[in-house]
Design a protein that fits this description.
Mean pLDDT: 92
CATH superfamily: Flavodoxin domain
Structural class: alpha/beta
Largest sheet: 5 strands, parallel
Shape: globular
Radius of gyration: 16 Å
CATH class: Alpha Beta
Order of helices and strands: EHEHEHHHEHEHHH
Low-confidence stretches: 173-177
Distance between the termini: 29 Å
Number of helices: 9
Strand order of the largest sheet: 2-1-3-4-5
Number of domains: 1
Bound molecules: flavin mononucleotide
Amino acid sequence: MNTITLLGSARGNGYTAALCEAIGFKTLNLNDYQIRPYDYRGDGRGDDFLGLIEELLRHDRILLASPLYWYSMSGPMKVFLDRLTDLLNHHKALGRQLRGKAAGVIASGGARVPPPCFEEPFRLTFDYLGMHYQGMSYLDTSKGLDGAMLAKVAASHPFKADYALATSGNWANATPA
Ligand SMILES: Cc1cc2nc3c(=O)[nH]c(=O)nc-3n(C[C@H](O)[C@H](O)[C@H](O)COP(=O)(O)O)c2cc1C
């Protein structure tokens, strides 16, 4: 199975980017793409959205990565999700190819745990698109970056092979010091 991560953060080298690196899949940064806000025309205005979708579609599993900004996903990630609407109206053949793919979320935030309203839009959107949502891993960055915690959160994502170990309660014995 090949997996791709799409990072949507205000900074490409911040905490969420560090989590993307720790989880270890190929990462695309939304800041490197010109994605215009949704505007109801959706008929190919020459930005990078369709090319990005085609790149994502070359993968079996799609992981969206976002920091918590005001209890929500980041602005760049919301713009990207809004643009998925184009796939329902103007580019249906592309949109249909998302069906059946596995999807996941990784996130970072200053809160100990994210509010439930953070994950719901992702889960519901994947569901609407016929994708199979596998879950979210969340990194609390309130005290900065902690390498061991970063590794543990990365490993706790269902897309990671060591997921079962990381969630079994025996991680303390297995994780590197
Ligand atoms: C604009 C903004 C809004 C934020 N809002 C929240 C929030 O509502 N809840 C929270 O727990 N952390 C919040 N934070 C903290 C970030 O989620 C946290 O520092 C995150 O790890 C930053 O990731 P980044 O380096 O990828 O931007 C906010 C940070 C910023 C810059």
